[in-house]
Fold this protein.
Amino acid sequence: MSRWICLLLLVCASATAQAAPHNNAAASATDDLDRFLIDRHQVLNQLREVRASVQDRTGELISTAMGFLGVPYRRGGNTADSGFDCSGFIRAIYGQTVGLALPRRANEQAEATEKIDKKDLQPGDLVFFNTMRRAYSHVGLYLGEGKFIHAPRSGAEVRVEDMSASYWKLRFNGARRVLSEEESASLLPKASAQNPIN
C-alpha cells in the first residue's frame, strides 16, 4: 500500500512540475498584458493633455487676435499702440500668447513655419497671400470656417475676412503651421533688422 502512495506522490509531483512552466507562462503573459494596459493608459493620458494644451493655445491665439480688432494699420507697426502691419500683427499675437518670437517679415514667417495643405488648415495656422506681386507678401491668422484675421493695408484696421472672397481666393499663397518653440528653434532664421515690406 505504501508503494502505491509513493507512486501516486511521484506522479503528482511530476504533473505539478510539468504544469509549473505552463503556469509561469500564463503569469508572464498576464504581467505583459498588465504592463501593456498601463502603458496604453499613460499614453492616452499624455495625448489628452497634449490635445487640451493645443486647444488652450489655439483659444488664446484667437482671443488675443480678436482683441486687436479695430487697431489701425501702420507700415512697420508691431504694437496695438502704434498700429500693426500684417507680419507685426502675427508676431505680436504669437509673442504675447505663446512667447514665441517669429521673424519680422511675412516671407520670413513663411520660411520659418511648417507648410501644410489648405485642406488641413486649423484655427491658429497662418495663411499667406501674394498681394504685392511676390510670394508671401501678406499674412493673416486662420480662425476656422474659411475666415482669417489680419492687418490689411494703409487706411484700414485689423479685421476678419473670408478667404473665399475673390480677391483673397486669387491671391492665396499657402498655409503654414507654427510649431512649438522647441520644434521651430532649428527652423527660425534670425529676424531681419530691416523694416518689413507688407
